[in-house]
Amino acid sequence: MMTHEKLIKLLKNYGEISREDEISIADKFIFQKTKKKEILAGQNCSCNKLFFVVEGFIRAYSINDKGNEATRMIAWEGNFLTDIVGFRDQNINQEIIESVTDSLLLFITKNNFDLLLNSSENFKKIYIKVLEEYSNIHMKKLQLINIVDISLKMKYFKEHFPHLVFKLNDKILASFLSISRETLVRYKKIW
């Protein structure tokens, strides 16, 4: 249960969780310790896991036909990550989910997630709130990549994703910002 404390605490911020719900959540979220660069879900594989970061960083990215990486999202402590469409519909994962650092994670399979949703009205209400926050983070990321002026992009990044500044390598940050590594290094001075 100790590994699940951060998850339970986070979920309680969104709504009431009974002791019975806590036990069910702890039972269905599985602990996973990962190494840096470990692939958690491969592209073109079944997407049946939702990850929660206890410690560390994970990311979802794809590789285009020219071999360039595009990082859709980075999750840090206290956040969730999955290929949401693939997870929801049990389709093929359209991206790679990778542990960026040595990390401590919890994950839940789609089947267990559905069991939780169907067994607890509280969990269902909390899920809606968490999903709204997940969408807000993605909207901020979309706004970030649409900023053309690099100085403004860097400023926006620092304001809206401060937990990522100086925590990840330049290649991953550049991929997240949708700019070249060289451009990132040049403009990093404004931080």
Automatic annotation (TrEMBL):
Q: Which Gene3D superfamilies match?
A: Jelly Rolls (2.60.120.10)
Q: Which InterPro entries match?
A: cNMP-bd_dom (IPR000595), cNMP-bd_dom_sf (IPR018490), RmlC-like_jellyroll (IPR014710)
Where in this chain does the record put each Cyclic nucleotide-binding domain?
10-134
Task: List each coiled-coil range.
Answer: none
Please give the SUPFAM superfamilies that the UniProt record associates with this protein. Answer: cAMP-binding domain-like
Q: Which domain of life is it from?
A: Bacteria
> What is this protein's record name?
Crp/Fnr family transcriptional regulator
| Protein source organism | Chryseobacterium kwangjuense
Q: Species lineage, top-down?
A: Bacteria, Pseudomonadati, Bacteroidota, Flavobacteriia, Flavobacteriales
